[in-house]
Write a structure and sequence with these properties.
Layout (H helix, E strand, L loop, with lengths): L1 E11 L17 E11 L4 E5 L5 H6 L2 E2 L4 H6 L5 E2 L1 H22 L4 H12 L9 H11 L3 H11 L4 E6 L2 E6 L7 E4 L2 H10 L16 E2 H13 L13 H9 L13 H15 L3
Parallel strand pairs: 1-8, 8-9
Antiparallel strand pairs: 1-2, 2-3, 4-5, 6-7
């Protein structure tokens, strides 16, 4: 069975929480899981938000935007850009805010759809705050230990029970085989995934110790088609980047929607895999 995964995460050093001092140190670089989405080959889906990541660090993390000519001339830094807060945390807050309100109020299907659209368009963003997000994640988030247990159960259809010499024996389904995992630019996603279970050696039995990278598969396809005398490119590409751009403009190439949502990106990963295997 193939599984397509994506994660949102906080990477890099973080300020140490303890010991408290005037001179806070930075931790070694790490990958802190925020959320994870997995889509199975058979259509099943799994999504979870971690309550174990350093929310305060993620909320306050910023980088400076490129300086304007005026800022350069007068020695000012560029404005602060809170990319994770705006692109990862706010969409999570919107989803959980909608979920919480839906639990507290009674809506018709039409009213719920309209409310969902209003929330996603930012109509309620004036309620978005660190305190509100923290409360929602505390209510709906899951510990990494809970997430790892749920993922194991989600992938547990790989194990079947059969009778051998009159005895029930558990094993790997010979048709489905061991699970295969796929991700796009998979390196950090795979580390975040594996750390849910501990060390690499702590991965569940039957899980591979590597993830198949859809970006590498895509590049290999582009290279292969570039060197064919006849291919679906109209005219010979001038470079790999040119060929890749044409590849992405193919009518069947999947379009990304709701980017930076782990489940939406996992769905896109599955569609990309299907596209690459159809050509």
């Amino acid at each position: 069975m193939k599984y397509f995964l994506d994660t949102e995460f906080l990477e890099g050093p973080q300020q140490e929480k303890f010991p408290l001092s005037l001179f806070r140190k930075l931790t070694p670089p790490t990958i802190d899981l925020i959320s994870i989405g997995i889509v199975a080959e058979d259509g099943r889906e799994y999504y979870a938000i971690s309550k174990d990541f350093n929310l305060k660090e993620a909320w306050n993390r910023f980088q400076f935007a490129e300086q304007t000519p005026f800022e350069k001339q007068n020695g000012f830094s560029g404005r602060k850009v809170y990319w994770i807060r705006e692109n990862v945390l706010k969409p999570i807050w919107r989803d959980l805010f909608f979920k919480a309100d839906l639990e507290n109020d009674i809506y018709s299907n039409t009213q719920a759809d309209r409310f969902f659209e209003d929330v996603n368009l930012g109509g309620y963003d004036h309620y978005f705050s660190f305190k509100s997000l923290k409360a929602l994640i505390s209510k709906y988030g899951k510990t990494n230990k809970e997430i790892s247990a749920e993922i194991l159960k989600f992938c547990n259809d790989e194990v079947f029970v059969t009778k051998i010499d009159g005895k029930l024996v558990a094993g790997i389904d010979p048709v489905r085989g061991n699970p295969e995992f796929y991700a796009y630019y998979a390196d950090y996603d795979w580390v975040a995934f594996c750390w849910l279970f501990g060390k690499m050696m702590d991965l569940p039995e039957g899980f591979p110790m590597y993830c198949r990278d859809l970006k590498q598969i895509l590049d290999d396809k582009v290279n292969f088609y570039m060197h064919l005398p006849m291919n679906f490119f109209s005219g010979k590409p001038t470079s790999f980047d040119d060929a890749l751009e044409r590849f992405k403009n193919h009518s069947n190439y999947p379009k990304q929607e709701n980017e930076h949502n782990a489940l939406a990106d996992a769905r896109w990963n599955k569609k990309l895999f299907q596209f690459l295997n159809s050509i």
